[in-house]
From TrEMBL:
Organism per entry: Rhizobium leguminosarum bv. trifolii (strain WSM2304)
Location in or out of the cell: Cytoplasm
Gene that specifies this protein: cysH
Protein name: Adenosine 5'-phosphosulfate reductase
Protein family membership: Belongs to the PAPS reductase family. CysH subfamily.
Co-factor requirement: [4Fe-4S] cluster
Length: 252
């Protein structure tokens, strides 16, 4: 990073730190309300997991001016696809679908094979790049704030998740309003408020991604152990929230 870029980023970083402190003292509705009133385009990206359903419920219930988007990768579980329409209906919101480009899928299949992600970390990152990172870039186009369902308890890799941070790669504020919520608090909110959730959660899938890349977890395993389970790296991510070099390259 050049000296000029470092100076230019000091403002957004300080803004994120100040916002982080403000959000810490608010409940979820307050956090989302504050963020939605900051101006600019605010986008919440949902994977339809139980955490994200809590945020969608609050956005819909309080009629907050937040765009809701999902990455319809082409390999999602049928249960996830059904939940998209159920959530839209229950909360009277529109969940914008962002799909991968056919040319990108064809190019990936030609190089690695359609399911080549099982063969190497490089191939898996490339698949995530095509099916998730490039659609995410379109979903966040023109956004000033990106809201996610990240929680500190999801994995060791996310243990230090702040309420707000500056995403230097995408040049926007990234807000994680559930950062301090544990899974029991999430489940209690869902139960108390009749929030629709993916039935796969009840079958041992606490974290749900693409069908070929997700399995149920075993007793005692971390929440995200079922994601890309054939890889040995316990901090594995797709690149949406961790700038893994291979995934970033694949998304360019």
């Amino acid at each position: 990073m050049t000296v000029i870029n470092t100076i230019a980023e000091e403002g957004p970083i300080a803004e994120a730190e100040a916002l982080n402190d403000k959000l810490a003292g608010l409940d979820l509705a307050g956090r989302l309300s504050l963020v939605s009133g900051l101006g600019g385009r605010v986008v919440f990206t949902t994977s339809l997991g139980i955490e994200d359903q809590v945020i969608s419920a609050e956005i819909g219930t309080h009629r907050l001016p937040i765009d809701v988007a999902t990455l319809q990768t082409g390999r999602l579980f049928a249960e996830t696809l059904s939940l998209i329409t159920e959530t839209e209906s229950q909360y009277d919101i529109k969940i914008q679908r962002y799909e991968p480009e056919k040319a990108d899928i064809d190019a990936y299949a030609a190089q690695y094979g359609l399911n080549g992600f099982y063969e190497s970390v490089e191939a898996r990152h490339a698949c995530c790049g095509v099916r998730k990172l490039k659609p995410l870039a379109r979903a966040l186009e023109g956004a000033t704030i990106w809201i996610t369902g990240l929680r500190r308890g999801q994995s060791a890799n996310r243990a230090e998740t702040p309420f707000a941070e500056y995403d230097a790669e995408r040049h926007l504020l990234k807000v994680n309003p559930l950062a301090d919520w544990d899974l029991e608090a999430i489940k209690a909110f869902v139960s108390d408020n009749g929030v629709p959730v993916n039935p796969l959660h009840a079958r041992g899938y606490p974290s749900i991604g693409c069908e070929p890349c997700t399995r149920a977890i075993k007793p005692g395993e971390p929440e995200r152990a079922g994601r890309w389970w054939w890889e040995q790296d316990e901090t594995r991510e797709c690149g949406l929230h961790v700038a893994e070099e291979a995934a970033v390259i694949a998304a360019q």
